[in-house]
Amino acid sequence: MWYRNLRAWHLATPWDLPAPELDQRLQASAFAPCAPGQADSMGWEAPLGDEADELVHTVAGYLLLRARIQERILPASAVNELLPERLATAERREGRKLRAAERRELAEDLRAELLPKALLRSQRNWLLIDPQANLIMVDSATAARGEAMLSMLRGSLGNLPVRPLAFAQPLDATLTHWVRSGKLPDGLELGGWCDLEHPEDTANKVRFRAQPLDEDDVAAALDRGLRVTALELCWDAGAEEPLRCVLGEDGALRRLKLPSAEAAAGEDESAAARLDADLALLGMTLQRFFAVLFPALGGVAES
């Protein structure tokens, strides 16, 4: 499954933009490769790959977009390697020491000279719109990258009223209670991953990996005043392939592991059929999971 991390935003108003119109608006911001002197480029590309034209892929009411960021990799060390020689040459030519502003200008000129020769690197992010749940979900654990994707979508649409998904109760308090009591709402179970941190001394941290969370050393950390900031949860644990994820105090889901879509789409299926199967499985699984998780966290905050 291609969603390894997930960060969600709540739509302030119902989504009512049809897929064809959304696709038309995205076309103006379609991805174009970096020009020789361009440091980076960002835009939308077809979820089905280079041979497809549509920038929006829909299945069962879900709308799937894919953003691509391409950047030229020019380490500062590469500029610094050549800069002293260029400075010495310029100072000999001028017969004086260059001023600070002149040195900065020379460094920028050198960077512009080297940039077209720099290697290219691309990063892609999926963005899933669930109109029924009024959610937009980005496959990133970092808020900055998610906000960049939303800003790009907002630029294509002209307006996008969203707010970060938040809950009526503090997440760290809920996660801490679950670990301390060992009692979780029906359908949820503790995994073997837990991060704890002292609220007043962030350097005071403890991490537990691949071990039962009902052991004495976990309880001892809680007794010292540490709170849970990330917790692995298992949902539908009785299934052959339960959903697993690490829920952070920021609301992001990391290390997301959903049931495999292999049964839904065979090896001989086309790329479009496999994506359809993955997307349908992802959307339906998340809807069912959120129907359990959100009430367990106190419900989604209204504002």
What is the compact description of this entry?
The chain is of the alpha+beta class.
Please, what is the oligomeric state? single chain
Report the biggest beta sheet as strand number plus sense, adding barrel if it closes.
Answer: 7 strands, antiparallel
Distance between the termini: 32 Å
Q: Helix content range of the residues, please?
A: 25-40%
Structural domain count: 3
**Structural class category:** alpha+beta
C-alpha Rg, in Å? Answer: 24 Å
> Which runs of at least 5 residues are low in confidence (pLDDT < 50)?
none
Number of strands: 12
General shape:
globular
Mean pLDDT across every amino acid position: 90
Count of helical regions: 7
How much β-strand is present in the residues? 25-35%
Helices and strands, in order, run as EHEEEHHEEHEHEEHEEEH
